[in-house]
Write a structure and sequence with these properties.
It holds the Pfam family Lactamase_B_2. Helix content is 28%, strand content 27%. The strands form two sheets. A seven-stranded mixed β-sheet has the order 6-5-4-3-2-1-14. Strands 7-8-9-10-11-12-13 form a seven-stranded mixed β-sheet. α6 links the parallel β10 and β11. α9 packs parallel to α10. 49% of the residues are buried.
Length: 265
């Protein structure tokens, strides 16, 4: 177990990418899973790898209805008897992927309206992505703040407002445009979708967003949702280092098949 797991507030990106996403966040005696695009068995395996207890989970919060964010959420909620927080439009687009929704406690959240889960205050905010009602999150617990925005085509004023002044950030750095355009496996419409205002942030766009934020409290930055075909960890990290060079902020590129360390914030 990472030594930081003993902290009152900690987080771990259990999976990140187009094949599945899951972020574990703990504040005091409250633990929440943000998105679950993993099977129940795989989620438990990855949590065990970091000595995290799935039975301690208090809720699952879903950002949007795409399969890589929601496919395992229903299974986990039913298995551990915990509520699912989700916007109404996202729920409507997720019912088939969630499975037996009548056997679940579904709590409708609204972008722009804060809610609490135990000792954790969660403020969902709207982001630009090709989903019904995609959300980023500003999570406050024990006086510390974590910002989460992993699928956004453009970072406007609202995104910058909610990601500023955080102690930790989980932020998209999806692709390198040159690799994307040269990729023979991506048809042109898909390339256009990735680069659009409802697609995904490039490394350079993520660095520009980072440069626009208040980073005075920032201890940890996790670069998320890296494309396995159109990006590399080195390229994503290089762009982030160009902004954070000389700071005390730790930077990690999250992976699809391996959890990050457990970071305190």
């Amino acid at each position: 177990m990472d030594e930081n797991v003993m902290s009152e507030n900690c987080f771990c990106q259990l999976a990140s990418g187009s094949k599945g996403n899951a972020l574990y966040v703990k504040g005091g005696d409250t633990a929440v899973l943000f998105d679950c695009g993993l099977s129940g068995r795989e989620l438990e395996r990855r949590m065990a790898d970091r000595e995290l207890d799935p039975t301690s989970l208090s809720a699952v919060v879903v950002s949007h209805e795409h399969t890589d964010h929601v496919s395992g959420a229903g299974i986990v909620c039913r298995r551990f008897g915990i509520p699912l927080f989700i916007t109404e439009a996202t729920f409507a687009g997720s019912t088939k992927k969630l499975g037996k929704t009548k056997a679940m406690d579904v709590e409708i959240m609204v972008c722009g309206t804060r809610f609490t889960v135990g000792s954790m205050e969660i403020h969902p905010f709207s982001i630009s992505h090709d989903a019904a009602d995609a959300s980023g999150f500003r999570v406050t617990t024990g006086g510390s703040v974590l910002g989460v925005a992993t699928d956004l085509g453009v970072a406007g004023h609202l995104v910058k407002e909610h990601l500023s002044g955080c102690d930790a950030l989980v932020m998209e750095s999806n692709h390198d445009p040159d690799l994307l355009y040269a990729n023979p496996n991506y048809p042109w419409p898909l390339k256009q979708r990735v680069r659009s205002r409802v697609g995904h942030l490039s490394n350079e766009e993520a660095a520009t967003l980072l440069d626009d934020l208040d980073r005075s409290r920032l201890k940890h930055l996790v670069l998320a949702h890296l494309s396995e075909e159109n990006n590399t960890p080195d390229l994503a990290l290089e762009a982030a280092y160009s902004v954070l060079n000389g700071s005390n902020t730790s930077i990690t590129a999250a992976k699809q098949h391996l959890p990050t360390s457990v970071f305190s914030f």
